[in-house]
Amino acid sequence: MIRWNSKIVGKSRHPTIIFLHGFLGSLEDWLPVCRRLLPDYHCLLLDLPGHGKTEATRTSDYTMSVTARSLIEFLSSLDIRRSVIVGYSMGGRLALYLAVQYPHYFEKVILESASPGLQRKEDRLLRRKNDERLATKMKNMPLENFLNEWYNLPIFKSLRNHPKFKELLGQRLASHTVNWTASLRGMGVGRQPPLWKKLKDLTMPILILAGEKDQKFRNISFQMKKLNPDFTVSIVPRCGHVIHFEDESRFYLEVIKFLTDRGESHG
């Protein structure tokens, strides 16, 4: 069973936006953006299983299918039947899964540095092995050393050069939970059901954001658009993988432009 920890910013009479953070993150990651969205939006921020103060009691709670079903039940308990969903990285993969499995709940979807998973079974098996090694390392080495090694990955190069990077590291140290490894094992890319073949069936407006310096996810974004030309792709200048942190103002502008779009053609 999942006991969701959440935070609400804004009034319930306004349109609802749900925010899903990435691996090692927490709902706190979204607060600066959500404050910018006041007073016109009702923002629901969630800690995903294994992160923050959300509690998960079973191993299966960390899988994408169970997490998604539980989240939908949680939204129903709050009487949220239609909303916009925003997800970054792991949270973006979950947001896309929710859009595929529960499309009538979501008016629009915003994916930041997210993918539909790995198409080939061999790649998924290899990724699971790599994630298991990473989980073991996370468990056995000092947290600060692990975080430095994690953020030394090439995908975070521009993030490391950000003037507030040390502040981000401090937030990660403060929000650490022993269940990060369970999240990695349950919702890592190697465990995710590939969603590529489902993209053509999605009919709600979807915005895909990728950083100019994040070549991997730039390529994934345009591959997704090839499968569904109605998707909107926006490449954010001077950013890498963590757009909402690296350039909060530009991220907000991309979000607000998409939310207020009434159906004009997209590039």
> Segments where pLDDT lies below 50 for 5+ residues?
none
What would CATH call the class?
Alpha Beta
Q: State the domain count.
A: 1
Broad structural category:
alpha/beta
Computed over alpha carbons, the radius of gyration is 17 Å
- Which CATH architecture would you pick? 3-Layer(aba) Sandwich
Q: Please state the overall shape, judged from the principal axes of the Cα atoms.
A: globular
What is the CA–CA distance across the termini? 42 Å
At CATH level 3, the topology is: Rossmann fold
Give me the number of helical elements. 11
* Fourth-level CATH superfamily: Alpha/Beta hydrolase fold, catalytic domain
Helical percentage: 40-55%
Largest sheet: 7 strands, mixed
Give the strand order of the largest sheet, numbering strands 1, 2, ... along the chain.
Answer: 2-4-3-6-7-8-9
Q: Average pLDDT value? A: 95
Sheet-strand content, in percent, reads 15-25%
Q: What is the succession of H and E elements?
A: EEEHEEHEHEHHHHHEHEHH
Number of strands: 9
Describe this structure in words.
- The protein is α/β, with parallel strands linked by helices.
- The chain has one domain: Alpha/Beta hydrolase fold, catalytic domain (Rossmann fold).
- The chain has 11 helices and 9 strands.
- The protein has helices at 31-37, 64-77, 90-101, 121-140, 143-150, 157-160, 165-174, 180-187, 215-227, 243-246, 248-260; strands at 2-3, 6-9, 16-20, 42-46, 55-56, 83-88, 106-112, 206-211, 232-236.
- The strands form 2 sheets. It has a 7-stranded mixed sheet, sandwiched between helices.
- The relative contact order is 0.15.
